Amino acid sequence: MIRIGHGYDVHRFDEQSPPSDIRLGGVDIPAPHALLAHSDGDVLLHALSDALLGAIGAGDIGEHFPDTSDEYRGADSRELLRQVYRQVTDAGYSLGNADITVIAQTPRLNTHKPTMKSSIAAVLEVNADAINVKATTTEKLGFVGRKEGIAVHAVCLLMRSPAQ
Protein backbone atom coordinates (compact mmCIF):
# COMPACT_ATOMS: atom_id res chain seq x y z
CA MET A 1 0.00 0.00 0.00
CA ILE A 2 1.23 3.49 -0.82
CA ARG A 3 0.21 6.88 0.59
CA ILE A 4 0.88 10.35 -0.80
CA GLY A 5 1.17 13.54 1.23
CA HIS A 6 1.49 17.20 0.31
CA GLY A 7 2.86 19.98 2.51
CA TYR A 8 3.08 23.73 2.08
CA ASP A 9 4.58 26.36 4.33
CA VAL A 10 5.52 30.03 4.18
CA HIS A 11 7.71 32.22 6.38
CA ARG A 12 8.17 35.95 6.03
CA PHE A 13 11.49 37.73 6.27
CA ASP A 14 12.00 39.99 9.28
CA GLU A 15 12.86 43.10 7.29
CA GLN A 16 14.06 44.81 10.49
CA SER A 17 16.80 42.21 11.02
CA PRO A 18 20.31 42.55 9.59
CA PRO A 19 21.66 39.96 7.13
CA SER A 20 21.47 36.62 8.87
CA ASP A 21 21.74 32.92 8.23
CA ILE A 22 18.43 31.16 7.71
CA ARG A 23 17.97 27.42 8.03
CA LEU A 24 16.56 25.51 5.05
CA GLY A 25 16.56 21.74 4.97
CA GLY A 26 18.67 21.73 8.12
CA VAL A 27 21.39 23.83 6.45
CA ASP A 28 22.39 27.35 7.49
CA ILE A 29 22.39 29.67 4.46
CA PRO A 30 23.32 33.38 4.35
CA ALA A 31 20.27 35.56 3.65
CA PRO A 32 19.38 39.24 3.56
CA HIS A 33 17.21 38.90 6.69
CA ALA A 34 16.17 36.33 9.29
CA LEU A 35 12.87 34.50 8.84
CA LEU A 36 10.11 35.23 11.37
CA ALA A 37 9.14 32.02 13.13
CA HIS A 38 8.32 30.46 16.48
CA SER A 39 10.81 27.63 15.91
CA ASP A 40 14.05 27.91 13.91
CA GLY A 41 11.96 28.87 10.86
CA ASP A 42 13.05 25.99 8.61
CA VAL A 43 10.19 26.42 6.17
CA LEU A 44 11.44 23.49 4.07
CA LEU A 45 11.37 20.99 6.93
CA HIS A 46 7.98 22.33 8.05
CA ALA A 47 6.50 21.68 4.61
CA LEU A 48 8.07 18.21 4.50
CA SER A 49 6.74 17.43 7.99
CA ASP A 50 3.26 18.44 6.84
CA ALA A 51 3.55 16.19 3.78
CA LEU A 52 4.56 13.21 5.94
CA LEU A 53 1.80 13.84 8.47
CA GLY A 54 -0.74 14.26 5.67
CA ALA A 55 0.27 10.97 4.09
CA ILE A 56 -0.56 9.06 7.29
CA GLY A 57 -3.67 11.14 8.01
CA ALA A 58 -2.18 12.64 11.18
CA GLY A 59 -3.07 16.31 10.75
CA ASP A 60 -0.44 18.98 10.40
CA ILE A 61 2.69 20.28 12.09
CA GLY A 62 0.78 23.00 13.94
CA GLU A 63 -1.33 20.38 15.71
CA HIS A 64 1.74 18.47 16.88
CA PHE A 65 4.05 21.41 17.63
CA PRO A 66 1.84 24.47 18.20
CA ASP A 67 3.39 27.91 17.86
CA THR A 68 1.48 28.88 21.00
CA SER A 69 3.65 26.55 23.09
CA ASP A 70 6.85 27.83 24.69
CA GLU A 71 8.12 24.24 24.47
CA TYR A 72 8.72 24.72 20.73
CA ARG A 73 10.09 28.30 20.81
CA GLY A 74 13.36 28.17 18.86
CA ALA A 75 12.94 24.42 18.29
CA ASP A 76 15.30 22.69 15.89
CA SER A 77 13.08 21.63 12.99
CA ARG A 78 15.35 18.64 12.32
CA GLU A 79 14.23 17.23 15.68
CA LEU A 80 10.59 17.98 14.88
CA LEU A 81 11.00 16.16 11.54
CA ARG A 82 12.58 13.18 13.36
CA GLN A 83 9.53 13.01 15.63
CA VAL A 84 7.18 13.23 12.66
CA TYR A 85 9.04 10.48 10.80
CA ARG A 86 8.89 8.31 13.92
CA GLN A 87 5.08 8.60 13.67
CA VAL A 88 5.33 7.54 10.02
CA THR A 89 7.39 4.44 10.84
CA ASP A 90 5.21 3.65 13.88
CA ALA A 91 2.22 3.68 11.50
CA GLY A 92 4.00 1.01 9.44
CA TYR A 93 5.29 3.14 6.57
CA SER A 94 8.64 4.15 5.15
CA LEU A 95 9.58 6.92 2.77
CA GLY A 96 9.61 6.03 -0.91
CA ASN A 97 10.65 9.53 -1.94
CA ALA A 98 10.14 13.21 -1.21
CA ASP A 99 10.12 15.97 -3.83
CA ILE A 100 10.51 19.48 -2.43
CA THR A 101 10.29 22.84 -4.21
CA VAL A 102 11.62 25.94 -2.48
CA ILE A 103 10.16 29.15 -3.91
CA ALA A 104 12.47 32.06 -3.10
CA GLN A 105 13.63 35.15 -4.93
CA THR A 106 16.46 35.36 -2.41
CA PRO A 107 18.77 33.79 -1.35
CA ARG A 108 20.00 31.87 -4.36
CA LEU A 109 19.94 28.17 -3.48
CA ASN A 110 21.50 26.19 -6.34
CA THR A 111 24.83 25.62 -4.58
CA HIS A 112 23.07 24.60 -1.34
CA LYS A 113 20.66 22.01 -2.79
CA PRO A 114 23.03 19.01 -2.55
CA THR A 115 23.80 19.81 1.11
CA MET A 116 20.09 20.24 1.91
CA LYS A 117 19.34 16.90 0.23
CA SER A 118 22.04 15.14 2.28
CA SER A 119 20.90 16.83 5.49
CA ILE A 120 17.28 15.76 5.02
CA ALA A 121 18.30 12.20 4.14
CA ALA A 122 20.44 12.04 7.30
CA VAL A 123 17.56 13.23 9.52
CA LEU A 124 15.20 10.64 8.02
CA GLU A 125 17.90 7.96 7.85
CA VAL A 126 17.14 7.25 4.19
CA ASN A 127 19.27 7.08 1.07
CA ALA A 128 19.86 10.55 -0.43
CA ASP A 129 18.32 9.40 -3.77
CA ALA A 130 14.96 9.36 -1.96
CA ILE A 131 15.14 13.14 -1.55
CA ASN A 132 14.90 15.77 -4.29
CA VAL A 133 15.26 19.50 -3.61
CA LYS A 134 14.43 22.05 -6.28
CA ALA A 135 14.51 25.84 -6.13
CA THR A 136 12.70 28.42 -8.23
CA THR A 137 11.79 32.08 -8.15
CA THR A 138 8.49 33.74 -8.99
CA GLU A 139 10.02 36.02 -11.64
CA LYS A 140 9.68 38.89 -9.14
CA LEU A 141 5.91 38.40 -8.79
CA GLY A 142 3.99 38.25 -5.50
CA PHE A 143 5.33 38.24 -1.94
CA VAL A 144 8.20 35.93 -2.88
CA GLY A 145 9.14 38.11 -5.84
CA ARG A 146 9.14 41.19 -3.60
CA LYS A 147 11.58 39.31 -1.33
CA GLU A 148 9.12 39.35 1.57
CA GLY A 149 9.41 35.64 2.32
CA ILE A 150 9.94 32.05 1.22
CA ALA A 151 7.40 29.35 0.36
CA VAL A 152 7.91 25.60 0.04
CA HIS A 153 5.84 22.79 -1.47
CA ALA A 154 6.69 19.21 -0.49
CA VAL A 155 5.27 15.94 -1.75
CA CYS A 156 6.10 12.53 -0.37
CA LEU A 157 5.30 8.94 -1.21
CA LEU A 158 5.12 6.48 1.66
CA MET A 159 5.14 2.72 1.26
CA ARG A 160 3.89 0.11 3.68
CA SER A 161 6.97 -1.27 5.42
CA PRO A 162 7.76 -4.86 4.36
CA ALA A 163 7.18 -6.29 7.85
CA GLN A 164 3.68 -4.77 8.06
Automatic annotation (TrEMBL):
Q: What role does this protein play?
A: Involved in the biosynthesis of isopentenyl diphosphate (IPP) and dimethylallyl diphosphate (DMAPP), two major building blocks of isoprenoid compounds. Catalyzes the conversion of 4-diphosphocytidyl-2-C-methyl-D-erythritol 2-phosphate (CDP-ME2P) to 2-C-methyl-D-erythritol 2,4-cyclodiphosphate (ME-CPP) with a corresponding release of cytidine 5-monophosphate (CMP).
Q: EC number(s) on record?
A: 4.6.1.12
Q: Where is this region: Disordered?
A: 1-24
Which positions bind 4-CDP-2-C-methyl-D-erythritol 2-phosphate? D9, V10, H11, H38, S39, D60, I61, G62, T136, T137, T138, E139, F143, R146
What family is reported?
Belongs to the IspF family.
Amino acid composition bias (Basic and acidic residues), ranges on this chain: 1-15
The pathway this protein participates in, as annotated, is:
Isoprenoid biosynthesis; isopentenyl diphosphate biosynthesis via DXP pathway; isopentenyl diphosphate from 1-deoxy-D-xylulose 5-phosphate: step 4/6
User: Could you tell me one molecular function GO term of this UniProt entry?
Assistant: 2-C-methyl-D-erythritol 2,4-cyclodiphosphate synthase activity
Identify the residues that the record assigns to the 2-C-methyl-D-erythritol 2,4-cyclodiphosphate synthase domain, covering every copy: 2-158
* Reactions accelerated catalytically: 4-CDP-2-C-methyl-D-erythritol 2-phosphate = 2-C-methyl-D-erythritol 2,4-cyclic diphosphate + CMP
Q: Which CDD domains match?
A: MECDP_synthase (cd00554)
This protein's name: 2-C-methyl-D-erythritol 2,4-cyclodiphosphate synthase
| Gene name for this UniProt entry | ispF
**Which GO biological-process labels does this protein carry?**
isopentenyl diphosphate biosynthetic process, methylerythritol 4-phosphate pathway; terpenoid biosynthetic process
What assembly does the database describe for this protein?
Answer: Homotrimer.
Please give the organism: Reinekea blandensis MED297
What are the coiled-coil residue ranges? Answer: none
